[in-house]
């Protein structure tokens, strides 16, 4: 539900300015940039008068006013952070687009974020402006965190074993049907296909059959418009600007809400009790006995779908490329399918998924090297201490799973894709926050089990259907211009397996 919020790069400015094609909008944009700049310079002046006795985190200087390190960071964020770690240690600050970011790198430094109270390191302050227009009011970061925690608990009740058992069947069937269009062999965009498949499976499993049955091209476009709300422009610019992408997002939100309202209403009046997540939410109550209203149910359903959409589709695409690159590993995974499920490969069962341990480790290792959420962020609402430094109020405090999961003083052969590393003693296992693709603490992901079921089911099905290889040895580079780091030019070669 959180997102990788701020790959602030030259691309960002291009994107933002590119969408502003009306004169009025350009003027408004200029005004907001000037306002932000004024805020930035006054902050700089104020900082001089701050308490000089406090030891602040090392600050990476920049000669570029306002933009600061946005260009270098946007171009290659991981490299930027790793170099800063070498030079300044686990805690350091720098400025981008008028905002000061303090990173806590490595397991020990990250403890501050994961053990903090939401009132001290606050998530709403950084995420709400993106999520509230997309999910709607009354849920997630639009409400005080104790309420969101109650909502997370309700969602978690719906993400249970009994439902997962049904989900495996649905996901397998959706995968077989979707990939019929791929034929026997060819070269295709794997990421695009998996993104489309994941929205279909997530809609079936998380929203239920009534909503899934309405998922045609028009509704898919509405989801895409809604999803367009998770943009650099939405994060950076005031919400009242009349940008086309903002208008599309708001219109899509209204239309999707109407679709969901009708389905919820029908369920409520029909009295039919279907055992699915929608029903779990209709029946759920807060601690004080109040049930969720239709706005809240709708917001949570949108949130569930979008929280898992990019995270699971990028992860499964990267996993495909890692397996295509290592054909021996791919064959081992296929052999595991036969060993666990039987030589004739009958339909998959939820109970078999946990025994697919090599596939499980491949997913775990994919999430180590390509965690979809590169940075978790909070706003410091009170001064915080890490590694002997005082982090002032107003800093955006960040932890990066990507960096923690490849730190050279924690991980052996850190850049190798080696799923078997988890079979032997590894130093990272002794560090609590060395591996955090799903976060930790009060904001921890509730979708981990669902994501594992979904990605393992899709890949079990695909490995049974096809043999994959890289196209002329090309392994995708990382596209840093998207909020979640997607594979660049993600074309894969495939050939149907002989039975
Ligand atoms: C590979 C798949 C996924 C990954 C890697 C992932 C990762 C994360 C991370 C890192 C966080 C913590 C964010 C933070 O602390 O700022 C998070 C939170 C969350 N995720 Fe996921 N997620 C995935 C899939 C899902 C799915 C499928 C769902 C829903 C079905 C989901 C729902 C949530 C929710 C509700 C939160 C809580 C946010 C909060 O309390 O602030 N995620 N996820």
UniProtKB/TrEMBL annotation:
Membrane topology: Single-pass membrane protein
GO biological process: cholesterol biosynthetic process
Location, primary (coarse class): endoplasmic reticulum
Keywords: Cholesterol biosynthesis, Cholesterol metabolism, Endoplasmic reticulum, Heme, Iron, Lipid biosynthesis, Lipid metabolism, Membrane, Metal-binding, Monooxygenase, Oxidoreductase, Steroid biosynthesis, Steroid metabolism, Sterol biosynthesis, Sterol metabolism, Transmembrane, Transmembrane helix
Cofactor: heme
PANTHER family registered for this protein in UniProt: 24-HYDROXYCHOLESTEROL 7-ALPHA-HYDROXYLASE, CYTOCHROME P450 FAMILY 7
Protein name: Lanosterol 14-alpha demethylase
Species this chain originates from: Solea senegalensis
Lineage: Eukaryota, Metazoa, Chordata, Craniata, Vertebrata
């Amino acid at each position: 539900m959180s997102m990788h919020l701020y790959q602030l790069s030259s691309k960002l400015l291009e994107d933002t300015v590119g969408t502003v094609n009306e004169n009025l909008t350009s003027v408004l944009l200029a005004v907001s940039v000037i306002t932000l700049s004024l805020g930035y310079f006054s902050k700089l002046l104020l900082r001089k008068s701050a308490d000089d006795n406090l030891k602040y985190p090392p600050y990476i200087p920049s000669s570029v006013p306002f933009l600061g390190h946005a260009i270098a960071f946007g171009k290659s964020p991981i490299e930027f952070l790793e170099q800063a770690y070498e030079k300044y240690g686990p805690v350091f600050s720098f400025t981008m687009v008028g905002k000061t970011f303090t990173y806590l790198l490595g397991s020990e430094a990250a403890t501050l974020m994961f053990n903090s109270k939401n009132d001290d390191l606050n998530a709403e302050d950084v995420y709400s402006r993106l999520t509230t227009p997309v999910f709607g009011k009354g849920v997630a970061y639009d409400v005080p965190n104790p309420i969101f925690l109650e909502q997370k608990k309700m969602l978690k009740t719906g993400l249970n074993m009994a439902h997962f058992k049904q989900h495996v069947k649905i996901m397998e069937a959706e995968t077989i049907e979707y990939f019929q269009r791929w034929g026997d062999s060819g070269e295709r965009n794997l990421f695009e296909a998996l993104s489309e498949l994941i929205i279909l499976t997530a809609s079936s499993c998380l929203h239920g059959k009534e909503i899934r049955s309405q998922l045609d091209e028009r509704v898919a476009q509405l989801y895409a418009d809604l999803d367009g709300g998770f943009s650099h422009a939405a994060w950076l610019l005031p919400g009242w600007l009349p940008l086309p992408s903002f208008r599309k997002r708001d219109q899509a939100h209204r239309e999707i809400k109407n679709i969901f309202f009708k389905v919820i209403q029908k369920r409520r009046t029909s009295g039919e009790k279907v055992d699915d997540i929608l029903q779990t939410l209709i029946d759920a109550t807060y601690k004080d006995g109040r049930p969720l209203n239709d706005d809240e149910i709708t917001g949570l359903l949108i949130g569930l779908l979008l929280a898992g959409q990019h995270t699971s589709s990028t992860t499964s695409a990267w996993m495909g490329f890692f397996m295509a690159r290592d054909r021996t590993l791919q064959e081992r995974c296929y052999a595991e399918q036969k060993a666990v499920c039987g030589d004739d490969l009958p339909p998959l069962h939820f109970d078999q998924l946990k025994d697919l341990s090599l596939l499980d480790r491949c997913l775990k290792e994919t999430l180590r090297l390509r965690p979809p959420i590169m940075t978790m962020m909070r706003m410091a609402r009170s001064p915080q201490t890490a590694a002997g430094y005082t982090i002032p109020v107003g800093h955006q405090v960040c932890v990066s799973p990507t960096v923690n999961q490849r730190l050279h003083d924690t991980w052996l052969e850190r850049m190798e894709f080696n799923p078997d590393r988890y079979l032997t003693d590894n130093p990272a296992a002794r560090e609590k926050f060395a591996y955090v693709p799903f976060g930790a603490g009060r904001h921890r992901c509730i979708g981990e089990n669902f994501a594992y079921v979904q990605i393992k089911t899709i890949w079990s099905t695909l490995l049974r259907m096809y043999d994959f290889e890289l196209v002329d040895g090309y392994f995708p580079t990382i596209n840093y211009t998207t909020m979640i780091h997607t594979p660049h030019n993600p074309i894969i070669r495939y050939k149907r397996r002989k039975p």
